[in-house]
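Entry 14. Two folds queued back to back today. First construct below, sequence then structure tokens.
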Amino acid sequence: MATKSLKPKGGSCCAVATCINYAGKVKRDGKTNISFYRFPKDPELQKKWTLKFRRGDSITPSLSYMCSEHFSDDAYIRDLKAELLAYTPKFRKLKPDAMLTINLPVDHTSIPTVMYHQQHHLALKVEWNQEKKNRLDNEKKKRVHWSTEDISKAFTLRYFSKRAYSYVKDELHYPLPGLSSLQRSAKNIDMRNGIREDVIRMMKLNGDTLQDYEKLTVLMFDEVKISSTMEYDVLHDEVVGPHSQMQVVMARGIASQWKQPIYVGFDQKMTKSIFFSIIDRLDQIGFNVVCCVSDCGGGNVVLWKALDITYENPIFSTPNEKEIVFIPDAPHILKLIRNWLLDTGFQINEQLINKKPLESLIKKTLSEINICYKLSEEHLTCEGPQRQKVKLASQLLSHTTATALLHYKPIDDTNLLNDTANFIELVNNWFDLSNVSHPNDHRTPYTAPYGLFLDDQDALLDKMYNTFLLMRCNGKYGLQIFQKALLMHINGMKLLLKIVRGHGLKYILTSKVNQDALENLFSQLRTRGGLNDHPSPLNALYRLRMIILGKNPGVTSNRTNTTNLIITLL
């Protein structure tokens, strides 16, 4: 009865009476040329093999193996491919009728087989136990207790690349924690209320490699809405929530690419004492805060008053007598300008500026091929969440819109048309200058970094300053918050340029002095649902931890260690 070719199998002891080969020993000794084979299925061939083993005890063929050291070369099927390509195959197939012929016991009567195998298996057991003991001893010797500084350095390297981390650790044999150690450490990063001390330690280590000008810091803060859910934090054994807002403070370099969330507080308005403690903590690790940014929300206006800053003097002093410039967020100011233009309109001396030319322009251009195809009714009727979108405001108050008004002349009132178009052009140029992100964009003096074309840029800022100082919203008598914020922004930007020039910098990329980085962080916290996705408190902290450790870190567990109590407050 013919059988199929027998492939080598990994695994057990050789059944030949006097052979001491087994899979673990072969692997340990590096004998890669030894393979193990199962019994053939042919009953007659099984009997012949069993006789060759010369064992006095019984064996079960289906559970037994024999090693390749008992077969001659004639017992294997010829591998023509290996011969032609001159390589040694990983395994060799036995012929269907292969027979054991070498390294066999000479005479089973001279070998006490039962006693031999008892002693043999006892020796194997002792050897296996010794191997296990040696392995455990080696693991204990290799176990390292990594310090917080070591873990912080490892996170820094892991942030850049997982492949680079593995290469440095495994190929260059640099002493680094394993990825499982980083996972455990990441799980234990304290993300509860207050300053993130773990993040501060990482910043300190990174700061040791930065120049002084690269550590010039902008602080920005804002609140993000979270769901009012009560949760149980398994890791810290405490109930968290319900909360409605999460205050986040981010630090970023004004002359470098780094940025990092450093403070979290639930339902916590920014106060003077918290603000000073954050600035002082950054100063302790060598990061020099020169500027602070916020929007014009009511809580932030209260902070302005507490810091005793005004649009005429947007600078405050810390208890250490350190002077810091406060600059309101330019994109938020732009949205407020759009809102007041649509809601009330403006008056500058005898000039009127309102939305009538814009309404007529959109009606006229909807039926024609036009240069302001991006404008729609949505830009004028934006309500609720739509008012939070900077894109709609920047498209409405743009150079394209100003040009279209002058080109199409959608209304007969020439003065109103020209005044509105000129106002929109002025706001557009100011926003371009306040949102510069590329150092080589020199299309106009207003798209270049602030400080490169200083005469033209200051002339624009002065014109903008005087316009909004004299401007009044229809039905209002004094300056509104958004006007004071814009005036503070202009004065603050001029002061900030003097400060950074004192540190050797020639210009400011003004996009670093707004809250775009913080808004991007909030969009990552919201992830899938946009403005309507409000994460729970602990889920927000978990997502924040993921962001701190890298965009796609892969070093944190996918579990948040929380239990939702399913108590939601509407």
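Second construct, same run, same settings:
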Amino acid sequence: MDIGLRSPTNIFGQPTDQLLFDLDAALSQWDNQSTSSPVTKIAFGHFPISFSALTTSGRSIRDVFLKHSLSAYLCGHLHTNFGRNLKRHHTSEKHRFSSKQYFQFDIREGMSTAVINDNCSARTESATEFWEWEMGDWRSARSMRILAIDSGHVSYADMDFIFGSRDVIIVPTFPLDSRFMQRSSDPFDFICQATSAAHIGTVRALVFSRYKIEYVTAKVYELHSGSFHLVLEQEMENTSGKGAMYTVAWNWRDFSDESPDRYWLQIEAVDMSGEVYLSERRPFSVNGLTAKFSWTWKEFTVMGCQWNQLYFPIMWTTLAFLFSLVLVPRTSLTFYENQFMLKLLKPKMTRRSSGGFSAVNFEFFGVELSKMYIIWSGMLLYLLYLVFFPWFTGYAVMEDHNKMYLHYKGWSTKYLANTSSMPYIGLPDVMVIVLPHLLFVVLPAFLIIAAIAAERALYLGHNIYQRAKKDGDHYKETCYTEYLCIFYWIRKILILLCLPIVWKHWKIYYEGIRG
């Protein structure tokens, strides 16, 4: 546990090549051992994959997990602040430049395809995959997860203790939740009978209770037309010698269906006082099919976006647009100054049916800004400064360390004692400062400045146009007054829009110095 960067530029996990080598070695220790059944591998870490940076050699912790096809990777970091469905299914990519390097739109994209045309002999090697399950924290959310491994299948149940303790906790272990727990190999197990009849032929659940449990019941519901209908209700038996394990035999073939969310399982437990406790109702598929389930936009933002890959594309796209906003009109004005000046002196107008006029010459937006040379030069120099010079200076590690300089590439280590050979650290953590500043401060500020310049040009051009009219036309004088009122309110609105930009700039600065 080395000393790391201070908030806010510390939101990413920074794995090293040595860490990935050690992790690979630890997960490989069973590969050469002959076992009667495959080894279930589970990893635990703090950071989600979407908030894990690449190593200096460009390797990812995700690649190690895919190599060993983990059953699950348990992580935290997000504290349930963005939703309860922070889960993601990872698979290896056939194409090197797949879009999944940057984002994944759903919790699990695509359906299981382990068996083709029911040909069990043609089954290829096991798919490289793993589930990522973010879990809530105990300190603020009072959340706890109970995870179970049942015949190689991993399942879990999340418990909230925010309102106090629980007398009974129920964890169904089979069949699995078809939304979050099915693997790509599960259809093969069903079609080719790879699993034993004892495994698939019983419903199983763990029931932990403070008091004596009188009986446990397995209930299966059929979802039809948006409502649930009870189709199976059987009492479960406590398995001798296995404590909290309850099982019941069932005719699983009755629930074979092409829909992965037609049937839903719920476990009911009754203690000695007659109190009834129910597990969460969840869909299952004995066929091993996966139910479709989508993130909310907040969940997609933190789990579906690979931010270490998206940082530079977003940043350079924004900077390219800002540079084009400043340079393209100026370049056009240089080559076509005579034409632009003619249009600025007499802007194009189109007569409305009511007799008024409305401007349709949108070239004002950038050209007039480029004519305000001092402001235009300041904007260009500011963009160049953001690219080539540091943004902030401060104590990024601790107060007794040397000051460091923040660039878009990270914190410069030039004046940091006892550092590595890396010129910058904290990449892509600095995106929490760089991207909000570019997208919510610089970009809107530049657009509003250009809009104010365009409004000024339209006002002057309209003023000149109206003065050229003959005097004494009362109707045209009334229209002229109306346009003055419109220009007045446009200017007021543009100035008011500056206030949220100033607030956002102050907020980013405050969060930076607070860290």
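Quick look at the second one. The chain has 13 helices and 20 strands. The chain has a mean pLDDT of 80.
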